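Notebook entry, structure prediction.
Reason for the run: the old model in the group folder had no record of what sequence produced it. Starting over properly, with the input documented here first.
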Amino acid sequence: MTREFNLIATTLRGQEVLGVATLSSLLAEMGDESAKVEITRIQGVLTAYTKLDPFQVVEMVEEIASKEPFKVAGIMRLIPVELVTQSRVEEIAASVDRLKDKIPPDATYKVMVEKRHTQLSSREVIEAVAARVDRKVSLENPDWIVLVEILGGVTGVSVLRPSQILSLGRLEPRPSG
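New structure, fully documented this time:
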Protein backbone atom coordinates (compact mmCIF):
# COMPACT_ATOMS: atom_id res chain seq x y z
CA MET A 1 0.00 0.00 0.00
CA THR A 2 1.30 3.40 -0.97
CA ARG A 3 1.78 5.99 1.74
CA GLU A 4 0.49 8.60 -0.66
CA PHE A 5 -3.26 8.51 -1.05
CA ASN A 6 -6.04 11.04 -0.84
CA LEU A 7 -9.07 8.78 -1.22
CA ILE A 8 -10.18 5.63 0.55
CA ALA A 9 -12.81 3.46 -1.10
CA THR A 10 -14.50 0.44 0.39
CA THR A 11 -15.93 -2.48 -1.54
CA LEU A 12 -17.64 -5.71 -0.66
CA ARG A 13 -15.05 -8.36 0.15
CA GLY A 14 -14.03 -10.04 -3.08
CA GLN A 15 -15.08 -7.01 -5.15
CA GLU A 16 -11.73 -5.18 -4.87
CA VAL A 17 -10.76 -5.70 -8.54
CA LEU A 18 -14.13 -4.35 -9.68
CA GLY A 19 -13.71 -1.43 -7.26
CA VAL A 20 -10.28 -0.57 -8.73
CA ALA A 21 -11.66 -0.68 -12.28
CA THR A 22 -14.68 1.44 -11.31
CA LEU A 23 -12.75 4.09 -9.39
CA SER A 24 -10.00 4.27 -12.03
CA SER A 25 -12.64 4.72 -14.71
CA LEU A 26 -14.47 7.43 -12.72
CA LEU A 27 -11.24 9.36 -12.06
CA ALA A 28 -10.25 9.13 -15.74
CA GLU A 29 -13.71 10.38 -16.72
CA MET A 30 -13.14 13.36 -14.39
CA GLY A 31 -9.84 14.15 -16.08
CA ASP A 32 -7.21 12.26 -14.08
CA GLU A 33 -6.01 9.42 -16.27
CA SER A 34 -2.86 9.02 -14.16
CA ALA A 35 -4.73 8.38 -10.89
CA LYS A 36 -3.35 5.45 -8.96
CA VAL A 37 -5.89 3.09 -7.37
CA GLU A 38 -4.57 0.20 -5.29
CA ILE A 39 -5.90 -2.80 -3.44
CA THR A 40 -4.64 -2.77 0.14
CA ARG A 41 -3.77 -5.76 2.30
CA ILE A 42 -7.09 -5.11 4.05
CA GLN A 43 -10.05 -6.91 2.48
CA GLY A 44 -12.56 -4.52 0.97
CA VAL A 45 -10.34 -1.43 1.24
CA LEU A 46 -8.77 0.48 -1.66
CA THR A 47 -6.61 3.60 -1.60
CA ALA A 48 -6.27 6.06 -4.43
CA TYR A 49 -4.10 9.03 -5.25
CA THR A 50 -5.53 11.60 -7.63
CA LYS A 51 -4.31 15.03 -8.65
CA LEU A 52 -7.95 16.16 -8.38
CA ASP A 53 -9.39 17.62 -5.17
CA PRO A 54 -10.61 14.54 -3.25
CA PHE A 55 -13.60 16.44 -1.84
CA GLN A 56 -14.71 17.39 -5.37
CA VAL A 57 -14.19 13.79 -6.51
CA VAL A 58 -16.58 12.59 -3.78
CA GLU A 59 -19.16 15.21 -4.85
CA MET A 60 -18.85 14.26 -8.53
CA VAL A 61 -19.11 10.53 -7.79
CA GLU A 62 -22.24 11.18 -5.74
CA GLU A 63 -23.74 13.06 -8.68
CA ILE A 64 -22.78 10.31 -11.16
CA ALA A 65 -24.19 7.65 -8.81
CA SER A 66 -27.52 9.45 -8.52
CA LYS A 67 -27.96 9.54 -12.32
CA GLU A 68 -26.10 6.41 -13.46
CA PRO A 69 -25.77 4.04 -10.47
CA PHE A 70 -24.25 1.29 -12.64
CA LYS A 71 -21.15 3.47 -13.09
CA VAL A 72 -20.23 3.10 -9.40
CA ALA A 73 -20.55 -0.71 -9.29
CA GLY A 74 -18.29 -2.25 -6.69
CA ILE A 75 -17.80 0.88 -4.57
CA MET A 76 -19.64 1.15 -1.26
CA ARG A 77 -18.02 4.17 0.37
CA LEU A 78 -15.71 6.93 -0.81
CA ILE A 79 -13.82 9.06 1.69
CA PRO A 80 -11.57 12.07 1.01
CA VAL A 81 -8.25 12.06 2.88
CA GLU A 82 -6.34 15.26 3.64
CA LEU A 83 -3.22 13.98 5.41
CA VAL A 84 -1.51 10.61 5.60
CA THR A 85 0.67 9.81 8.58
CA GLN A 86 2.12 6.90 10.50
CA SER A 87 -0.28 5.02 12.75
CA ARG A 88 1.03 6.41 16.01
CA VAL A 89 -1.21 8.33 18.40
CA GLU A 90 1.16 11.34 18.56
CA GLU A 91 1.45 11.52 14.75
CA ILE A 92 -2.31 11.29 14.29
CA ALA A 93 -2.93 14.04 16.87
CA ALA A 94 -0.29 16.24 15.18
CA SER A 95 -2.08 15.79 11.83
CA VAL A 96 -5.39 16.80 13.41
CA ASP A 97 -3.60 19.86 14.84
CA ARG A 98 -2.85 20.95 11.26
CA LEU A 99 -6.50 20.59 10.15
CA LYS A 100 -8.58 21.53 13.20
CA ASP A 101 -8.99 25.21 12.27
CA LYS A 102 -11.38 24.17 9.47
CA ILE A 103 -13.96 23.77 12.24
CA PRO A 104 -15.50 27.19 12.99
CA PRO A 105 -15.34 28.26 16.68
CA ASP A 106 -19.12 27.93 17.15
CA ALA A 107 -19.44 24.56 15.36
CA THR A 108 -19.72 21.10 16.90
CA TYR A 109 -17.68 18.03 16.01
CA LYS A 110 -17.08 14.41 16.80
CA VAL A 111 -14.06 12.18 16.35
CA MET A 112 -14.63 9.03 14.30
CA VAL A 113 -11.97 6.35 14.30
CA GLU A 114 -12.15 3.50 11.81
CA LYS A 115 -9.35 1.09 12.43
CA ARG A 116 -8.18 -1.96 10.58
CA HIS A 117 -5.11 -4.14 11.11
CA THR A 118 -3.91 -2.24 14.19
CA GLN A 119 -3.61 -2.70 17.93
CA LEU A 120 -4.09 1.03 18.58
CA SER A 121 -6.82 1.82 21.07
CA SER A 122 -9.70 3.84 19.59
CA ARG A 123 -10.22 5.49 22.96
CA GLU A 124 -6.56 6.55 23.16
CA VAL A 125 -6.73 8.03 19.65
CA ILE A 126 -10.02 9.84 20.39
CA GLU A 127 -8.67 11.30 23.64
CA ALA A 128 -5.44 12.51 21.99
CA VAL A 129 -7.35 14.07 19.08
CA ALA A 130 -10.06 15.66 21.25
CA ALA A 131 -7.36 17.25 23.42
CA ARG A 132 -6.24 19.20 20.32
CA VAL A 133 -9.68 20.42 19.20
CA ASP A 134 -11.16 23.20 21.32
CA ARG A 135 -14.74 22.96 20.07
CA LYS A 136 -18.01 21.66 21.45
CA VAL A 137 -18.58 17.93 20.96
CA SER A 138 -21.81 16.53 19.54
CA LEU A 139 -21.89 12.76 19.16
CA GLU A 140 -25.42 12.66 17.75
CA ASN A 141 -25.50 15.47 15.18
CA PRO A 142 -22.06 17.07 14.68
CA ASP A 143 -21.44 19.89 12.20
CA TRP A 144 -17.97 18.42 11.49
CA ILE A 145 -16.23 15.06 11.76
CA VAL A 146 -12.58 14.56 12.59
CA LEU A 147 -12.08 11.30 10.71
CA VAL A 148 -9.19 9.00 11.52
CA GLU A 149 -8.88 6.03 9.12
CA ILE A 150 -6.22 3.64 10.42
CA LEU A 151 -5.07 1.18 7.76
CA GLY A 152 -2.39 -0.88 9.45
CA GLY A 153 0.81 1.20 9.61
CA VAL A 154 -0.61 4.26 7.86
CA THR A 155 -3.48 6.53 8.81
CA GLY A 156 -5.56 8.93 6.74
CA VAL A 157 -6.88 12.01 8.54
CA SER A 158 -9.61 14.41 7.40
CA VAL A 159 -11.72 17.15 8.90
CA LEU A 160 -14.98 17.18 6.99
CA ARG A 161 -18.72 17.60 7.11
CA PRO A 162 -20.77 14.40 7.53
CA SER A 163 -22.12 14.84 3.97
CA GLN A 164 -18.57 14.66 2.56
CA ILE A 165 -18.34 10.93 3.25
CA LEU A 166 -20.13 9.13 0.44
CA SER A 167 -22.02 5.94 1.32
CA LEU A 168 -23.33 4.53 -1.93
CA GLY A 169 -25.36 1.79 -0.29
CA ARG A 170 -27.85 4.41 0.92
CA LEU A 171 -27.99 6.52 -2.22
CA GLU A 172 -31.37 6.77 -3.90
CA PRO A 173 -31.49 7.47 -7.64
CA ARG A 174 -32.78 10.98 -8.26
CA PRO A 175 -35.60 11.38 -10.75
CA SER A 176 -34.32 12.80 -14.02
CA GLY A 177 -35.71 15.93 -15.53
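Summary: The chain has two domains: 7-81, 83-162.
The old model has been moved to the deprecated folder.
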